[in-house]
Design brief:
By secondary structure, this protein is mainly beta. It contains no helices and eleven strands.
Length: about 130
């Protein structure tokens, strides 16, 4: 049974920072690719960032490149999303997800991720 639990969301002013965490059980990051996605009200779920299994090559959406950093702690089975220089348009529910196949490559397509957390709300005020 795979469980993903996000934390770290909240309300922050524009220009501020937040760090999201995603703790996983039933899944080891050394062999599974992880991703962060977000969904704002009335919009489709969109890709934010992904980190590969193993050494963890990363990828980012253009909208967050240079501001967000994805990382992981394999010993803690936790993936992080450090979000700096936040903008009001970053407001959304943020979800972490994992691909269902070991050694699967990174992907920006949410339909290629099999397990999802419950999400954590991020609100950026102007």
């Amino acid at each position: 049974q795979v469980q993903l639990v996000e934390s770290g969301g909240g309300l922050v002013q524009a220009g501020g920072s937040l760090r999201l965490s995603c703790a996983a059980s039933g899944r080891t990051f050394t062999t599974y690719t992880m991703g962060w996605f977000r969904q704002a009200p009335g919009k489709e779920r969109e890709f934010v960032s992904t980190i590969s299994w193993g050494a963890g090559p990363t990828n980012y959406a253009d909208s967050v490149k240079g501001r967000f950093t994805i990382s992981k702690d394999n010993a803690k089975n936790t993936v992080y999303l450090q979000m700096n220089s936040l903008k009001p348009e970053d407001s959304a529910v943020y979800y972490c997800a994992t691909r269902g196949t070991r050694f699967a490559p990174t992907s920006s397509r949410p339909e290629e991720y099999d397990y999802w957390g419950q999400g954590t709300q991020v609100t950026v005020s102007s």
